[in-house]
User: Fold this.
Amino acid sequence: MHNFSGKTLREISYLLNNFRKMQIGIFLKKLIIFICLFCIACNNRHKEDNIDYKWFSFGLEGITVNKFISSHNFLFALTGPNSLWRLNLDNDNSEWGNLGFTITNSSSYSLNGVFDIIIDDYNSDNILITTRNFDTESSNHIVFRSFDNGNTWEPADSGLISISNGLVKKKRIYLLEQFQEFIIGSGGYDGFYKTTDFGRYWEKLDTTVAIDGWVLVKHPINENIVWYGGQDASWTTKLYFSENSGMDWEEIRPYPVLGGDTKVDFIALDKDNHNTVIVHTYSELVKSMDMGSTWDTLSLKVLLNLKQSESENEIYYASMLDTLYSSIDGGYTWDVIDSPNEENIKSLFFDSARNRLYLSSEEGVFYYGS
Assistant:
């Protein structure tokens, strides 16, 4: 054992005390920094909680929008016989631009004109559209494409139109869905067609599915899973799903709750679980969690629109007449939320990139955001 002198012990004690003071000082500095960061975080959270979310008017007054779609910078509005419209979302002073396809004759049914649209996943300047009864007025063509964001268009229906003995025969497609290597189109009783060159040529797919299709949806994560719904020639509900990107289809039957003289008009898929699907007909809103083997009837019945928040998978938005609903539990319960006016709601669209809910009514387009 070492023997220390009194002086040595005092020196050791002095060093230990200084070391303790240094440690306490460092601790206090860290504590002060932590408190400051915590206060900043609380202040930021408080600011977020007080963000003024409200409805903003977005133009197109008096024009019914059947469908919205957005690209990186633009919002497109399909307004049936009233043209295809485009708005630059990056420019606060931008106005809606008319991209054409107006129908002015007496058969200007609300679903005529531009019916569906695809913006190329690999180049947002490339756009492919289908039309309904547009060829009866100003064009012999039914599908068009653009390579400059809709400024100019060219026919894209080779393989769909043929001439025999002087008679023009058209194989109509209305619905579009894009996959990694091809695009499929359907909607009419002529079945499915596929293009690998963005509409330059379409080839017939060997499928037995030939219905009046109203909705074609691929899974947002697993593109092998595709759902297709509508009605057959006898007005009976038809619902199909594919596990190989639409090359083959299996009909969902018998219908536990679907069926009757109606049609499937909305389908929403769960991005985290490809077995889950929500389907709407004229009179039922149902949900299956086992790829259609069994179904639950949801509390909301007749509705006109059904949209899913892709950023928050369990949130759904729906509308019926002038009433807007939201569900935060996958569609099992619904709450009424404020809408911008008392006009009937024509269409809904949730833009997950900007966290905005778009709405169309007789008073124009609105979005809910900050």
